[in-house]
């Protein structure tokens, strides 16, 4: 009877190798997830401004349409300039009238000043005569009782001196009044010049241009609409800089730093990637369970309500070379960060 040969024991090495490779792969995946976090809870965003006129008036020209792209300096709309042009013409006419009035008043001042100089010379002459009469009176006063001089002669000299001084004071007062009149007109002219500058500024503000490259949104008006100062007409997206707000779990934040490289994908075209860098990490959100109410904080909802899960914080990622045709505010995105 022939004996059946025994089978060689099967080697356990392949199975152990598979298990080891699986463990290595698992460790790598865990390390990768922990050191290079990613999230699909993200959206594209950009800065916006409300385009508001700084002067009131009726819109006479609207050069843009809703969702239109514009370049810096492009005309957006124009307010009716006619009221401001009329105000400017009125102010300039007032300035011209004041200049003429100042010129005439200055001539009067010059004439009065010449008369004052003449009177002053006369007064000096009278003062000299009065002094001479006073000296004569002082020398001859002891002889007055003897009748060699008369008191009337002395009185006439004093009267002449006082009259000359009174005339001089009157002319000087009149000249000073005329100079004060010129000063008042000059001050009034400065006020009119300020009005002209302000009116020119208002006239310039009637034309509104794009302050930067952007895209018009929320345009709901047309030519003929009365625009009030400081009331928004539409919104302008600043398309020069796009960023992604990615909500990462708080357990991932330890591996995120300002400057961390990131890869961005938009759900509108997931096959195209964009490079970016972490700009900043949020330091405040509103929790779902209440107990904290702070105005202005973003609210990030947790994905599971019946399990205590990690809170998510917004991370701002600046996109290096965004495609302006693909990026829209609120567009869903996926953010993957590079390992640190």
What would your notes on this structure say?
The structure is a single chain. With 340 residues, the protein is α+β, with helices and mostly antiparallel strands. The protein folds into two domains: 39-78 and 220-337, Beta Barrel (Elongation Factor Tu (Ef-tu), domain 3); 82-204, Orthogonal Bundle (Helix Hairpins). 40% of the residues lie in helices and 25% in strands. The protein has three helices and twelve strands. The protein has helices at residues 13-35, 82-140, 151-205; strands spanning 38-51, 57-62, 69-70, 75-79, 207-209, 214-217, 226-227, 234-249, 261-266, 269-281, 312-319, 332-337. A six-stranded antiparallel β-barrel has the order 1-8-11-10-9-12. A four-stranded antiparallel sheet has the order 5-4-2-7. A hairpin with a 2-residue loop joins strand 9 and strand 10. Helix 2 (82-140) runs antiparallel to helix 3 (151-205). The two termini are 71 Å apart.
Write a compact overview of the structure shown:
The protein is of the alpha+beta class. Helix content is 40%, strand content 25%.
């Amino acid at each position: 009877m022939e004996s059946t040969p025994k089978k060689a024991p099967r080697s356990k090495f392949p199975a152990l190798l598979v298990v080891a490779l699986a463990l290595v792969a698992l460790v790598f995946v865990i390390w990768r997830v922990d050191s290079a976090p990613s999230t699909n809870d993200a959206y594209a965003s950009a800065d916006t401004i409300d385009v508001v006129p700084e002067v009131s008036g009726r819109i006479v020209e609207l050069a843009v349409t809703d969702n239109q792209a514009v370049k810096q300096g492009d005309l957006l709309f124009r307010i009716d300039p006619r009221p401001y042009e009329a105000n400017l013409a009125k102010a300039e006419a007032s300035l011209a009238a004041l200049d003429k009035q100042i010129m005439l008043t200055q001539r009067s001042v010059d004439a009065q000043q010449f008369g004052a100089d003449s009177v002053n010379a006369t007064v000096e002459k009278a003062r000299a005569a009065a002094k001479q009469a006073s000296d004569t009176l002082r020398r001859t006063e002891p002889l007055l009782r003897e009748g060699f001089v008369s008191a009337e002669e002395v009185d006439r000299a004093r009267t002449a001196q006082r009259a000359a001084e009174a005339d001089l004071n009157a002319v000087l007062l009149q000249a000073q009044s005329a100079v004060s009149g010129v000063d008042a007109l000059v001050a009034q002219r400065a006020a009119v010049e300020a009005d002209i500058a302000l009116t020119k500024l208002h006239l310039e503000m009637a034309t509104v241009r794009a302050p930067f490259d952007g895209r018009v949104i929320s345009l709901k008006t047309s030519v003929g609409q009365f625009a009030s100062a400081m009331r928004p007409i539409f919104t302008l997206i600043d398309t020069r800089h796009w960023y992604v707000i990615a909500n990462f779990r708080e357990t991932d934040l330890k591996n995120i730093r300002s400057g961390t490289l990131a890869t961005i994908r938009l759900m509108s075209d997931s096959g195209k990637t964009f490079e970016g860098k972490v700009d900043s990490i949020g330091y405040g959100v509103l929790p779902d369970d209440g107990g904290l109410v702070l105005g202005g904080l973003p609210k990030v909802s947790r994905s599971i309500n019946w399990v205590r899960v990690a809170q998510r914080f917004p991370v701002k990622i600046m996109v290096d070379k965004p495609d302006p045709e693909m990026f829209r505010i609120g567009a869903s995105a996926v953010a993957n960060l590079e390992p640190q």
